[in-house]
């Protein structure tokens, strides 16, 4: 039985998640707040770019986002919190959605802070408090600097070499060399080399095969690792990676779309991690983003698989 995409209900879910249309930032735990604002605004933008202005207070959100920037030049998840590459990328994405990147004062300070997190081998740590490296941080640094048009601030060749070293024998990528392959890490690595115009540096064939085996034969959903349950969020992490590699034909798209649609709350809106579970803002966004890549009849705007932003926003940023 075909299940339609309940866009208007998802819109109400996103807006109502905060309790009122002009206080979105009060809806989430402090440390995740800037991430949640990005997920919410980008999800609405995929339905209609005007929703982020009609459903929320644009100036309030821009001001809140800028207030998350601290003395380092990086952004935290909430005003007064320590800066992290993960939060910095979300903040930059929020400002990009509102065409407000020019509101960042002394952008060179942000650029320098990001560049200071690069290690000699090309990897990145997420902040200055914890030395752990992770391919998530590589993607966040590369994407942030690309949006700010300052990739020249880092050693891109070393970063490419580091990413190549993170590819495993099975074709997947781990959070660092030798670590278990995971679909989200595959997106981070492929997204980064895509931005750096070096996709040919990785073993694409083995990666595409590994990604294609993430599809569950029973439900049509995708998982992040072998022998794990399918989860709606991987309709973004896996699908975006395959889209960058021009290899979406390697999965059963109709069955995956059906899986995501079955995870909708058709009464109150929102999308869950899998059917019959409770909807949340994270899976709502990544479910919508995946559908935007997979289903041209779903009523959503096109999304860029590399930057996780609407195609028209990326075109504006990159000129």
TrEMBL record:
InterPro entries: PGGT1B-like, Prenyltrans, Ptb1, Terpenoid_cyclase/PrenylTrfase. Gene3D superfamilies: 1.50.10.20. It catalyses: geranylgeranyl diphosphate + L-cysteinyl-[protein] = S-geranylgeranyl-L-cysteinyl-[protein] + diphosphate. GO terms for cellular component: Rab-protein geranylgeranyltransferase complex. It comes from the Eukaryota. GO terms for biological process: protein localization to membrane. Transmembrane segments: none annotated. Its EC number is 2.5.1.60. The keyword Ligase does not apply. Binds 1 zinc ion per subunit. This is Geranylgeranyl transferase type-2 subunit beta. The lineage of its organism: Eukaryota, Metamonada, Carpediemonas-like organisms, Carpediemonas.
């Amino acid at each position: 039985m075909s299940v339609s995409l309940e866009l208007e209900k998802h819109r109400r879910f996103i807006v109502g998640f905060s309790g009122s249309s002009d206080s979105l930032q009060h809806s989430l735990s402090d440390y995740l707040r800037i991430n949640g604002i990005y997920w919410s605004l980008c999800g609405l933008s995929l339905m209609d770019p005007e929703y982020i202005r009609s459903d929320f207070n644009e100036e309030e959100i821009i001001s809140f986002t800028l207030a998350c920037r601290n003395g380092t030049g990086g952004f935290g998840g909430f005003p007064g919190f320590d800066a992290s590459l993960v939060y910095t990328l979300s903040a930059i994405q929020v400002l990009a959605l509102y065409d407000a990147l020019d509101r960042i004062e002394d952008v060179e300070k942000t650029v320098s802070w990001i560049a200071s997190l690069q290690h000699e081998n090309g990897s990145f740590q997420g902040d200055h408090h914890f030395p752990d490296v992770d391919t998530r941080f590589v993607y966040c640094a590369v994407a942030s600097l690309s949006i700010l048009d300052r990739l020249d601030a880092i050693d891109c060749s070393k970063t490419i070499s580091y990413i190549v070293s993170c590819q495993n024998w099975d074709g997947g990528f781990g959070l660092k060399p030798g670590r278990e392959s995971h679909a989200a890490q595959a997106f981070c690595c492929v997204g980064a080399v895509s931005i750096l115009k070096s996709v040919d540096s990785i073993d694409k064939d083995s990666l595409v095969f590994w990604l294609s085996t993430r599809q569950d034969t029973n439900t049509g959903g995708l998982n992040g690792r072998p022998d794990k349950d399918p989860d709606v969020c991987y309709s973004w992490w896996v699908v975006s990676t395959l889209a960058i590699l021009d290899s979406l034909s390697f999965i059963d798209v109709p069955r995956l779309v059906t899986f995501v649609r079955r995870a909708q709350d058709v009464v109150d809106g929102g999308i869950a991690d899998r059917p019959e579970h409770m909807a949340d803002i994270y899976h709502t966004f990544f479910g919508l983003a995946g559908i935007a890549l997979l289903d041209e009849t779903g009523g959503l705007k096109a999304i860029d698989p590399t930057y996780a932003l609407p195609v028209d926003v990326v075109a504006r940023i990159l000129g």
